[in-house]
Each structure stands twice: as C-alpha cells, then as structure tokens.
Design a protein that fits this description.
Blueprint (H helix, E strand, L loop, with lengths): L11 E5 L7 H13 L6 H4 L4 H17 L7 E4 L3 E5 L5 H7 L2 H20 L12 E3 L4 E3 L12 H15 L1 H4 L4 H17 L10 H20 L2 H4 L2 H18 L2
Antiparallel strand pairs: 1-3, 2-3, 4-5
Helix pairs in contact: 5-6, 5-8, 8-11, 9-11
Length: 253
C-alpha cells in the first residue's frame, strides 16, 4: 500500500520591486482622464517611480486592514524588496465569468453592498475592480492595495472612486442585463450605505457624484459615436448601458 500523498502546501503570491511600473505616458493618461472627470487623483498616486515604496505602502495597508478584521491576504513575509502573501481564492472576475448569467446580478449587487459596508467601517480600497476582489460564496475579500490615494484625496472622494471602479469593472457583465441591472447594483451600494453608520463621519454621496459625472461621460459617448467603427463597438455599448443605468439611478433620487 502506497503512502498517502502529502497535503499540498498553502498557495502564496509574491510581489517584488522588480516588476514594471507605469510609464510616464500611462500615468499622464490616467491623471488627465481622472481630472477631466473632476476626480482629483493626485499625480504622485498615479506616477509610479518607487517600487519599494509602493510595496512598503501595500504592506502597511494589509497589516492595518487585517488588524481591523478585514478580509485581506495574510502577510507571510516582507523584506523591503519582496512581499509574500497568502492566497484568498479566485477573483470575482473569474467567478462571475463561470457563473450562469441569471445568477450574476445577485452577486454583483452583493459585491456593491459589501463595498459600501467596507467604506462605512472607515476604509477605502483604491483598486476596487473585480480582479482585486474574491468571493467564496459567503464572504468577499480584497487584494492589491498599492495605490497611495490618501492623503492626497479626501476619504469620501476615494470611496466614490472605489464605487466607480467596481461599476466599470462589471460593465461587460451588465451590458446584456441592461440599464435596470446597473441601477440595481448602484441601489445596492446606496441602501447598504444608508444602513451603516459611518465611522469616518461623512458618507459619500454616490447619487450626487454620478450626477456630477454624467454630462462628461455622455459627451464621451457622443464624441465616440461620430466614428462608425466606435459607434458599434462593444466598449461603447457597455458605456451607454452604464450611462443609462446611472441616469435612472440618479433620477430616482
């Protein structure tokens, strides 16, 4: 009788200071677009030049969030050059992609509500896209915390930026479900925000934020529509679905 196979070692992930950082052109594009939308992302937050500094910042945030009881990757080792963390499961982007379409909306709404609860506890993500979330069927967890948006921005604005990141990362799933699904995802955030007292004091006003953004995003949609190629692109269809859903959410307030 052969001996039983030993259990597989826990999976870990290593991020090092050797990885490529954003180029100046990429940074400038992000900064200009954010400011055109009147989201005051500071230049130092998008212009990545100090890989060790980013790792140290992420290390500190992971420790602080874990100490606060948040679901984040456990830090296994950090030496200033490499950050080793434990695995927290498959990303939400991957999970949603394998899920039957009728089941997706409920999970997307749950992710939106969970983000609002995370914000109510006084936290922010800085990279709230579905590629940086995991879900095990009961609990969401978060990863990738290297964006130094605070103290360059105020907390409510960073939290609203999180909500926008999550929504846009869901756009390819929401397109086939239509504007009503977009509205439901936004309502899930708003309802969860109302249900929780905010430890940091000031609640982010998602409805006012989107009302502020809509005219500029509509302008992008109209400008792209002048091109016959872009007018029928999937990206523009997704944007228009989001905009219609945002408008419905804003007008319902």
């Amino acid at each position: 009788m052969s001996p039983p196979n030993p259990p597989a070692p826990p999976r870990t992930w290593t991020k090092t200071a050797d990885r490529p950082l954003r180029s100046r052109r990429q940074s400038l594009g992000i900064w200009l677009f954010a400011h055109w939308l009147r989201v005051p992302v500071p230049w130092h937050a998008v212009r990545q030049t100090d890989a060790r500094g980013l790792l140290a910042f992420e290390h500190e945030r992971l420790l602080a969030l874990a100490a606060a009881g948040e679901a984040v990757p456990p830090v296994i080792a950090f030496d200033g050059h490499s950050l080793v963390t434990g695995d927290i499961g498959r990303t939400l982007a991957h999970t949603l992609g394998e899920m039957p379409e009728p089941q997706r909306l409920a999970v997307m709404c749950a992710a939106s509500a969970d983000l609002a609860a995370f914000h109510a506890r006084g936290h922010w993500h800085g990279g709230a896209q579905t590629r940086n979330l995991t879900w095990d069927g009961q609990r969401f967890a978060r990863l990738d915390f290297e964006e130094p948006l605070l103290p360059g921005m105020d907390l409510p604005t960073v939290q609203l930026y999180d909500a926008l990141q999550l929504l846009f990362s869901l756009s390819h799933m929401l397109e086939s479900l239509g504007p009503q699904a977009v509205r439901e995802v936004l309502q899930a955030y708003e309802q969860a925000a109302r249900a929780h007292p905010y430890e940091a004091g000031l609640k982010p006003d998602l409805r006012a934020f989107l009302n502020h953004l809509l005219p500029r995003l509509r302008w992008v949609s109209r400008l792209a529509g002048w091109s016959s190629r872009l007018n029928h692109s999937r990206e523009l269809k997704r944007l228009r679905t989001l905009l219609d859903g945002m408008a419905a959410f804003v007008s319902a307030g």
